Amino acid sequence: MNKYDATLSSTYIANGKNFLVGYGDGSFVEGIFSIDTVTINGIEIKNQTFVECNSINSTSSLLSDGVLGLSYPDLTFDNGTTILISMWNRGLISKLLFSIYLNPDKNSSYESGLIFGDIDSSKYTGSITYVPVVIKIYWEFLMDRVYANSTVINSSLYAIIDTTTTFILGPTQSIDTLNIALGGTYDSSAEMYKVDCIARSLSSFSNVTFIIGGKAFTLTPLQYILTFNNGVNNYLCYTIFVPLNIYDSRGNLYWTLGTYFLYRFYSIFDFANNQVGLATSISYNWTKSFDASPFNNLSKTTQVTTQSIASTTSSSTQSIASTTSSSTQSIASTTSSSTQTTIVTSMGIQMNTFLRHTLNDIVLLVGLFLIKTV
Length: 374
Known about the structure:
Blueprint: E1 13-22, E2 28-40, E3 43-57, E4 67-69, H1 83-89, E5 97-101, E6 113-116, E7 124-132, E8 135-136, E9 139-142, E10 145-148, E11 151-153, E12 158-161, E13 168-170, H2 172-181, E14 185-187, E15 192-195, E16 208-212, E17 215-219, H3 221-224, E18 225-229, E19 235-239, E20 241-243, E21 254-257, H4 259-262, E22 265-270, E23 275-281, H5 301-314, E24 331-334, E25 341-344, E26 349-352, E27 363-365
Parallel strand pairs: 12-21, 13-20
Antiparallel strand pairs: 1-2, 2-3, 4-27, 5-6, 5-22, 6-26, 7-23, 8-9, 9-12, 10-11, 10-16, 13-21, 14-15, 15-19, 16-17, 18-19, 22-23, 24-25
């Protein structure tokens, strides 16, 4: 881990204000506000206020150099300015948005990435579906409905996208209904729903579909069932749909679409137009290989996955025009493990990222030492 040392910086400015924030899991972060130049992929953001942490009490290890908050300004402390807004105010990006690609395949040449100020069209297929932000604190929007088999959930459909939440969380009543439709039983020790992947065939599990902005975003069984091998052919299987009642600032119960959702769908967060965009990710079809089959009939895996992606991409009801505009600057980014170079236009700034998964904060953890410059 790289640590910030103000004594080594000639551009450091002391702020003097203290910072302390606690989280629902009992962890906390304590520090002081500081001002310095922040550099991302060779782009300098001067006089950026941030928190210099001197005490972190967490139940899990921190896997990056810091935390980069990307929610609306109303969520900032002391009316601070986020990195994205600072870049926009200084003319460093030509679009007031950021986009995220998460790849579950660690062996892929495409690394997960965050782009400030642009959208990488090489990381998704089909069109982008946009929905308006309904509460400008988190990136909160309304889904149309969620369904599995003949079970339809059409209430309590407020939702946010959260890069630091691993699972898909939802109101207890809705998640209970969904998991029961999938044949799940609640495991109180794990606080998750278990499904029988030994006696049942893979084809007996239905897809789970989220209708957002009139378009179907579908997860197949291999995308929402987690398998754990406790011994030779001794499998435990859980769904990623976890019951948790969380309320927004207006008292609405809402869903949290975490990284298991983002592995399949490219996401765009558009400040200028107050909207969230989703498109089918190029990593949609990736599934983890099994050493042995936990399902009664794994031979139908390819069939299920192929059918679901065809259904998802063909059900779009909205088409969005090109997001690329004229620009005086183009930034190229390439990764060490890939022979392909990604060209990002419209003064976009890209970095490679990895994430720490928690259930508490709407932030993106950025491994600064992974930033590539060209």
